[in-house]
């Protein structure tokens, strides 16, 4: 303590030139500019008083000038002094010296308390460093951005680090510049590590990613009884890579993932998949394999897939099939050329996988058919060569009575199917409400069949008005607007009925929640980043799909991630434990 408090300080009149071995000498002003420097008349050079008295376990390249030997190359003094002040060994020596002086200067305080204070300060500094790294990763995850490029030294996350440093993030700059390579926490392994009830149902679907690997998207549906009012929730849990696509392998992966997330499999009441034989097979499908082990897990065929298959059966009618083909050809003809595309309103392509888009395409095409037909007629006479010939062929097929009749039929019933398809995709939809919606549509169609003779007198606006009347005329007066959810408050004294309603609410209606994750997967896992691990992929997609939760309280989210990350042994300390 006395050594620190009474370090030799030469006066301003001290003649440094007599100590110099070259044309340049030490300057007195440097003692004020760099408080850690002291001058030794005996060694005739500058030393770091902290590193000399509290030497650190240093590695090759750090010891030498300022520590074990005086600094004498005054020509490069400022650059060398700045480099030394930023080294890890100097910072640690400074902390040790400061703690030592505080302990000796305040003997009334407990040494344990003062040491804890120093450790707490170091933990806070380490957490600030990791906070900057995590903020960048969270930004990538919530904006569907892959972290790295083809190699681990390139990519978006490194570019964002550089951008943050250029914008003035001194904490991140000093951390990446001065921290040891194995303690920066920006490696691929660490990124993957950072990113990674009353009853529930499992929802699953699979799709190939950009690198050709089959990814199983897994989600759960459950009733959240912890909030008021009670709410049905469907949550995406992540992806799992499938090594095989047979029913047994997929079923095992689903059960393993559920157990991994800590779900009580005895509370598994439902399964929701599409209708392919691998998933829905009665004897050897995934649903059958899981039901063998968990008999309560009722399989529910995705209602949206089932409705789409019913609609696709219309293609068995040759006239309908030909009309759809002609409509696709006309839309493609106008969309493939920017000049022709500007001649008509924007008509979406008929998309087989996005059901609402398909109905919208038919509806928009029908609403603008007069203009489309007129533009085809004009192109026949004004265009030349192949364009005129193709326009003539499309004009001929679209002017037949059969095509016009089929277009009216498709437009009329697409207007009724579009709201039903959208309603089925809602998370709040339950089995009872889905059945009610479908029955209403069936009744409307049956009544329309009986009135087929008057169909030609109904325009689109009148059809929508009648549809609205038909829907509500079949309803009884009731107060239950939210289906089975509204019945729960009346079941407190009848627990068996309450449990039955909860199970019914838990059963999935569609697999839309997990199918939405594939859009996020295709945005994150791209041609530029096709070798991403499944843990990293799941983490980024979860942040993307749950960005509302992440962004709602981002600082708290990042600190919770740091707490979890710090539970394993780390080179830097991120948690403070008071003794």
From TrEMBL:
Residues 491-548 form the HAT C-terminal dimerisation domain. It holds the Pfam family DUF4371. Residues 182-282 form the DUF4371 domain. Signal peptide: none annotated. It comes from the Eukaryota. PANTHER family: DUF4371 DOMAIN-CONTAINING PROTEIN, PTHR45749. This is TTF-type domain-containing protein. It comes from Xenopus tropicalis (Western clawed frog). The lineage of its organism: Eukaryota, Metazoa, Chordata, Craniata, Vertebrata.
